[in-house]
Design a protein that fits this description.
The chain has about 90 residues and is mainly alpha-helical. It has one domain. Helix content is about 65%, strand content about 0%. Helix 3 crosses helix 4. The radius of gyration is 12 Å and the shape is globular. It starts with a helix and ends with a helix.
Length: about 90
C-alpha cells in the first residue's frame, strides 16, 4: 500500500511504465483508461491515478497477460466499475 502512495507521484511516463511492468497495461491501453477516468470527471491527476490503481486492483488485472481495451478487454470492466461507483 505504501508503494502505491509513492508511485502516484511518478512522472507520467514512469507511472505508465509501472502500469505496464506491474499490471501488463501498455501505454496505449493506459492512455485510454486515463482518458476514461478524466472524462468521468476525475481531473486531478493524483486522484485519477489512485482511482486507476484501485480499478486495476478490483479488476484483477494480471501482469502475465497483456491487457486489451476493446471488446473483451478493459472497456467492459470500466463500465462495470463506474456502475458500481454510481450505486
Amino acid at each position: 500500500m505504501d508503494n502505491m502512495k509513492n508511485c502516484i507521484h511518478f512522472t507520467d511516463r514512469s507511472f505508465q511504465k509501472m502500469c505496464d511492468l506491474e499490471y501488463g497495461i501498455n501505454r496505449g491501453v493506459y492512455n485510454e483508461v486515463d482518458k476514461w477516468f478524466y472524462n468521468k470527471g476525475i481531473v486531478d491527476i493524483l486522484d485519477r491515478r489512485r482511482e486507476i490503481l484501485n480499478f486495476i486492483r478490483v479488476s484483477a488485472v494480471d501482469a502475465h497477460n497483456k491487457v486489451r481495451f476493446g471488446h473483451g478487454g478493459l472497456r467492459q470492466k470500466l463500465m462495470e466499475y463506474f456502475d458500481n461507483l454510481a450505486e
